[in-house]
Specification:
The chain is an alpha+beta fold. It has 3 domains: about 35-90, 3-methyladenine DNA Glycosylase II, Chain A, domain 3 (Orthogonal Bundle); about 95-190, Alpha-Beta Plaits, CATH 3.30.70; about 190-260, Alpha-Beta Plaits. About 30% of the residues lie in helices and about 10% in strands. The protein has 10 helices and 8 strands. The strands form 4 sheets. The protein has a two-stranded antiparallel ribbon. Strands 2-3 form a two-stranded antiparallel ribbon. It has a two-stranded antiparallel ribbon with strand order 5-8. Helix 2 packs across helix 3 (about 55-65) and helix 2 packs antiparallel against helix 4.
Length: about 280
């Protein structure tokens, strides 16, 4: 009898507390828009953050609230954008696929080395002490970008530079974030003219440390001043759509080939892209 009363008391209290919690949940709960789950389920579940949100779920919630565009998932592309638009009853805007492009041609042959690097074999670590190349702006060659790629769209070539398989690249931007030298950018896939250099050194020094560096000679600027400018000893394309086809031959007179047409690397058609990814 002495133990029965405490048991009954605790049982009654437990029932009261649980009833209170149930009532509070029913009164305070926020009803979720069912479209959030519909959109979430058609997303690629990459959780890469390329949309600007913490993950696919957060992006789905933002789209329903109107805080993100229906075509805001670069990984999903037009197909996913079209499905999201259908769920929301709106029109999907045309998407231009973006892909990663490497702004460096500092290959093993072209870029001079300052010595042998014996530190941690990552670009992030090598960047802290300058790396093994004399150029302080070029690719360090340890493949941080390749390891960061969620879609196996990148590989390190025999030339010591990363390459991109544009058929697999989703434009998620993980490689861009991983590069400490900022030599990787996302560009519309139809952009066929690029500056393949990021060196801000003066012409003589830039060419001394890398045969493929921009030397700020201005040939490309004089050929197409409406689309190309010089900033800090480096050519910069301000609007590739303003470069007419007949101006490209003049632009490609660049003595170091630091600017010109973008061509898919030949490795994309052979077995080089099947090489093992750099170890983590």
């Amino acid at each position: 009898m002495d133990i029965l009363i405490p048991i009954l008391t605790m049982g009654i209290l437990g029932l009261l507390f649980s009833s209170g919690l149930v009532l509070a949940y029913k009164k305070l709960r926020v009803e979720e828009d069912p479209r959030v789950m519909e959109i979430f389920e058609i997303l690629p579940q990459a959780n890469c953050g390329a949309c600007g949100f913490s993950g696919c779920r957060a992006f789905a919630e933002a789209v329903v609230k109107g805080a993100a565009p229906v075509n805001g998932c670069p990984v999903g592309g037009e197909e996913v954008a079209s499905k999201i638009a259908s769920i929301l009853g709106v029109e999907a805007k045309t998407m231009v696929k973006k892909v990663a492009r490497i702004h460096c041609r500092g290959t093993k042959e072209a870029a001079k080395e300052r010595g042998v690097y014996l530190g941690i074999a990552t670009c992030a670590a090598a960047h802290l002490i300058g790396g093994q190349k004399q150029c302080s702006y070029g690719c360090l060659g340890f493949g941080d970008c390749v390891r960061a790629c969620l879609f196996e769209a990148m590989w390190m070539g025999e030339d010591g530079l990363p390459h991109v398989d544009e058929t697999k690249c989703t434009g998620c931007g993980q490689c861009v974030e991983a590069c400490p030298r900022n030599i990787i950018e996302l560009h519309p896939i139809d952009q066929n003219i690029l500056v393949f250099c990021r060196s801000l050194d003066r012409g003589p020094l830039a060419r001394k440390v890398c045969k493929n560096a921009c030397i700020a000679c201005g040939i490309c600027v004089r050929a197409c001043p409406e689309a190309i400018v010089l900033e800090n000893n480096l050519a910069k394309i301000i609007d590739y759509k303003k470069i007419p086809e007949d101006k490209i031959p003049a632009i490609e007179k660049c003595p170091t080939k630091a600017i010109g047409r973008f061509h898919r690397p030949p490795e994309e058609t052979d077995s080089a892209k099947d090489q093992p990814r750099p170890a983590s």
